[in-house]
Design goal:
heterodimer; A: alpha/beta; Bifunctional carbon monoxide dehydrogenase/acetyl-coa synthase(codh/acs), Chain M, domain 3; 2 domains; 5-stranded mixed sheet; 4-stranded mixed sheet; 8 helices; B: 10 helices; binds adenosine-5'-triphosphate; binds magnesium ion
Chain lengths: 253, 252
């Protein structure tokens, strides 16, 4: 089974990397493309909390304007480590209060298990909490929606701070040795350019999760143990599935 | 702090919630979450702020996502958070959520549990969350309000209203995390009576709200309570909320 190949590099997204390279070279030829590398100079105070409309300076990723995000991983050598690329206006220079947002995050990771890798990387990316910045994501629809507060903008917050925080957070994960990010605010058309990659990655992740979710019947490692304990129906369903899996195993022998 | 407004049907819960929301909207340094937990959506109407979708619509959306293959539990929680935000209607420093009418379509207990977590998580971002609960004890009983810190019990001058408030409180003490409760006597015609000594109840009486023509008119004409001018009912409510520390000044 390729998805479960033990040890070292994980290659489920390898076919997408070529398309990403093509997209990146297209973007690089645009006049509104910029890339920043000095991660250490890009730190921003942590903070969380809800940002209401009246405090918002710029909103990014309204689905009507364009909103796409993906997180994928590959062999560390295939990552342009530390690159934070932006195609389109940064928030401070935005003429509009709303911008589309496209985002590809790539981590160079070595894990023994794809699902563990997915969970660890997701935790790192979704766990990024920055003062004056709020993000909501819908993984199944590949969308990301963010607000940046007026205070944050007047203190100099830029999308490179966001990119830097995501990369730093990823690099804090054991097993991750390199990371890069490409952000797109140039317009719906440019955001849509990354759709094939985003949707391709989603299909792979969904398939992987499906496999794992159908193999794991161990209540001790299940996050929903506490729900199951409250709702006996859920417990029964789980037991039934477990039996089914056992049966299948026996028939196979 | 999460404050639930509870009481018998028709005693003025929504009116109190709407005027409280009005007072909160004038406290610009506060962020307030206003939850219309009555399936009929009376509070959203009283405020003239109808969210584009209800929590129940969000529940349906997420069930669709599950049917379409969303399996990972963390992804589910992240998605719910996203969708919950799409159900918020904002008005200055207020954020309004409406529960909507739940329709049973199979057992999605798991969704309800995560949804409740998500709403409670959302509430933590606000200085105060105000819930206009359904009449009676159902929501208290079903643990919908388990995270409530303070119960604002409303009664009219009827004995029945008071008894229902007392029942809600005793159930609330068992079924919620509440740390305090207070009683408001609404639609009082004779404000000269000293209700503190007149009424025998174990609940702390916060004060009375007079029967008020302006309130009646706003209700009858369907005007937004966010526009209500100073009037006896509003003044009394503001004073007693301040005394109870419910307008963000002090924690009761
Ligand atoms: N202080 C007041 N003065 C005059 N009328 C009032 C006052 N308080 C409430 N009312 C009127 O009483 C009626 C019931 O009030 P409201 O809808 O607030 O009650 P409720 O407890 O929310 O009812 P329900 O249980 O149906 O949700 C409304 O017509 C409202 O205008
Ligand atoms: Mg009501």
């Amino acid at each position: 089974m390729i998805l479960l190949s033990k040890g070292g590099a994980l290659g489920i997204f390898d076919d997408l990397l070529e398309e990403i390279s093509r997209i990146k070279s297209e973007f690089e030829n645009r006049s509104d493309y910029r890339v920043v590398k000095n991660l250490d100079k890009l730190s921003w105070e942590e903070g969380s909390g809800l940002i209401l409309q009246e405090e918002t300076a710029v909103e990014l990723g309204d689905p009507r304007l364009g909103s796409l995000m993906t997180l994928l991983w590959c062999d560390p050598s295939r990552v342009e480590d530390g690159n934070i690329a932006l195609v389109g206006p940064d928030i401070r220079h935005a003429s509009e209060r709303k911008l589309p947002l496209g985002m590809i995050v790539i981590a160079g990771a070595r894990f023994s298990d794809e699902y563990d890798c997915y969970r660890a990387l997701r935790e790192a990316v979704y766990g990024v909490k920055l003062k004056g910045f709020m993000a909501r994501m819908m993984p199944s629809r590949n969308t990301i929606w963010c607000r940046v507060s007026k205070d944050a903008i007047s203190s100099g917050f830029s999308l490179f701070h966001l990119g830097g925080a995501i990369l730093n957070s990823l690099k804090g994960v054991g097993g991750v040795s390199s990371a890069e990010i490409v952000m797109v605010t140039a317009g719906k058309e440019q955001v849509e350019r990354i759709r094939p990659v985003v949707e391709g990655a989603r299909k792979l992740v969904d398939a992987m999760i499906k496999m794992y979710s159908e193999m794991n019947f161990d209540c001790e490692t299940c996050d929903y143990k506490y729900v199951c304990e409250e709702v006996s129906e859920l417990r029964k369903i789980r037991e039934r599935l477990k039996e089914k899996a056992k049966d299948k195993g026996n028939k196979g022998k | 702090m999460i404050v639930a407004i509870c009481g018998k049907g028709g005693v003025g819960k929504t009116t109190v919630a709407a005027i409280t929301a009005k007072e909160l909207s004038e406290k610009k340094d506060l962020k307030a979450l206003v939850v219309d937990a009555d399936p009929a959506g009376g509070l959203s109407m009283a405020l003239g702020l109808m969210p584009k979708k209800t929590i129940n619509d969000v529940r349906k959306e997420i069930v669709e996502e599950i049917k379409a293959g969303l399996r990972d539990e963390k992804d589910l929680a992240i998605s719910l958070d996203y969708l919950l935000n799409t159900a918020i209607k904002e008005y200055g420093n207020l954020a309004i959520l409406a529960i909507g009418r739940p329709e049973d379509e199979g057992c999605y207990c798991r969704v309800n549990v995560i949804l409740k977590d998500a709403i409670e998580g959302l509430a933590e971002n606000f200085d105060i969350a105000l819930i206009d609960a359904e009449a009676g004890i159902e929501q208290v009983n079903r643990k919908v309000l388990s995270a409530v810190d303070y119960m604002l019990l409303i009664t009219d001058t009827s004995v029945k209203g008071l008894k229902v408030a007392e029942t809600i409180l005793s159930v609330g003490k068992r079924m919620t995390a509440m740390r305090g409760a207070g009683l408001i006597i609404n639609r009082v015609r004779d404000t000269d009576i000293d209700y503190q000594t007149h009424i025998n109840t174990p609940i702390e009486i916060l004060g009375v709200i007079p029967e008020d023509e302006t309130v009646k008119r706003f209700d009858e004409e369907g005007k937004s309570f966010l526009e209500i001018p100073p009037c006896p009912a509003r003044e009394s409510l503001k004073a007693l909320l301040n005394r109870a520390g419910l307008l963000g000044n002090t924690v009761p």
